[in-house]
C-alpha cells in the first residue's frame, strides 16, 4: 500500500485510516519469523511512556522499518488516544505497534481488545466509521496468562466522574436574550465559560483547544480540576460538531451549558458565543447568583 495513503486528510479520518491499514500486515504476521529488539525512540511519543523501553521488530502490524514505518504511522493513533476513550487504549495499541521485547510474543488478550473496543468504537462511530473487522477481538488469544490482559484497577474507570461522549451537536445562540441565558442555567446541570481556540496545524487539519481556565457559573457535578480536560476531550470526540460550532481565528469566549446523563456521559446542550457587545450574557451571569428558577 502506498505510504501516502497514511497521510490523513482530516483528524477524523486518521483514526480509521490507520486501523484499516493494519489489517493486511497483522493477518500476515508470522510468529516464526526472525525478529530483533530495538529501543523505543524518543520521537515515538505514543509509546514512549508505555512502561518498557525495548520493542520487537517486525511488530504485529508487519512493520520492520523503525524510522520509515513504525514511528510515523504510530502518530496516527495519537488523536484517538487523546480522546481518553479508554485508560488502557495505549497499552492495547502499543502492544501491536511496539510489542514488548521478551522471550516470547505477547499479544493483547481478547478481553483487553473487547474493553478498548467497547469504549473507543463509539469514538470512531462518531466520525461515521465502524470498528474495523481487522480488529475483531476474536482474533486475539482468550487465555489470560498468555497475553496482555486488562487491569482490574481500571474496571471502574471514570464511572464516578462525568465523561465526554459522542452526541448531537448543541445549539449555538448568538446575542441571546437575558431570559434565554438564565433559563439555560436553570434547565441544565452546569454552566461554564471557556475560551475555545481553533487553529490549523501545518498538515492543514483543524485543531481545537480549550485556552486557559474554565470558569464556573453553575458547577453542578463537574470538578474544577477535571472540567477543562473534559471539554478538551469533548472537542476531540465530537470533531464534526467542533468544526460547525467553533469559528477559525482568535480564541472565542463561550458560555456552555449542559447536563450529565444517567450513564455518566457529559452532554453539551447550548453554546452562547460571548462577545463584548453581548450585555445580556453579562447581566445574566451577574443575576444568576440571586436568581430563582
Strand content: 15-25%
CATH architecture of the largest domain: Orthogonal Bundle
Number of helices: 10
Helix-strand pattern, N to C? Answer: HHEEHHHEHEEEHEEHHEEH
* Fraction of residues in H or I helices: 25-40%
Largest sheet: 6 strands, mixed
What features would you highlight for this structure?
2 domains, Netrin_domain, Frizzled/SFRP, six-stranded mixed sheet, transmembrane helix, elongated, OB fold (Dihydrolipoamide Acetyltransferase, E2P), alpha/beta
Q: Can you describe this structure?
A:
Helix content is 33%, strand content 20%. The chain starts with 10 loop residues before the first helix and ends in a 6-residue tail after the last helix. The protein contains ten helices and ten strands. The chain is α/β, with parallel strands linked by helices. β3 (107-108), α6 and β4 (147-148) form a beta-alpha-beta unit. The radius of gyration is 22 Å and the shape is elongated. The chain folds into two domains: 3-154, Frizzled cysteine-rich domain; 163-290, OB fold (Dihydrolipoamide Acetyltransferase, E2P) (Beta Barrel). The strands form three sheets. Strands 5, 6, 7, 8, 9 and 10 form a six-stranded mixed sheet that branches. A two-stranded antiparallel ribbon has the order 1-2. The model is unreliable at 1-28 (pLDDT under 50).
In short:
With 293 residues, this protein is α/β, with parallel strands linked by helices. The chain contains ten helices and ten strands.
